[in-house]
Amino acid sequence: MYPIHSSRPERRAAVEQKTRYSLYKLELREDFVSKCGYCDTPDYYSGGRRGFHIDHFAPKSKFDALKNEYSNLVYCCPICNIGKSDDWPTERSDVSYVDGVGYVDPCHPDYHNHLARGRDGVILPLTPLGAYIHKKLKFSLRRRQICWLMERMEQQLIELAKIADKSEGESQEVKALCELTIRYFEYAGILKRE
């Protein structure tokens, strides 16, 4: 099994107070490594920064005082944001789950105790709370697995290209692999453009 996040998101501690939560999007994108805080899908699969949402971990509809609180914001994909919506298990903003119902802040180290990825990229619930999150945020959608597998494949292609670059007396097969890798990244680059 693998952790759900390839690199755990971490919100910066000090951020200048802004008048609207939408103005934090650049900082959030950086802190969440351009990936959904909940499912770890890169933002370029949803149109980049413009296509990604800002979730209020404790919903703004229930906790208006936290509307512009940076520590309450999560950079996320549209599917996770719509799935979570205004769902919250308690009347308190600081109690995010009760008896296996609710959510764990994806920046909290405990998030990884509830969800993981299988070797095939499928997101797996590890606890009853993880199962609740898995269902609400639609983690069973195949696109989550495909995006993860494509990202892993790209990392492996980069490593193969490095190995091929160091090899002496390149064969036709190695040259063909390198050319194919270059073409792949040209096509993938179209998807990743803002």
From TrEMBL:
Pfam families: HNH (PF01844). It comes from the Bacteria. GO terms for molecular function: endonuclease activity; nucleic acid binding; zinc ion binding. Residues 23-82 form the HNH nuclease domain. Gene3D superfamilies: 1.10.30.50. InterPro entries: HNH (IPR002711), HNH_nuc (IPR003615). This is HNH nuclease domain-containing protein. It comes from Pseudomonas syringae.
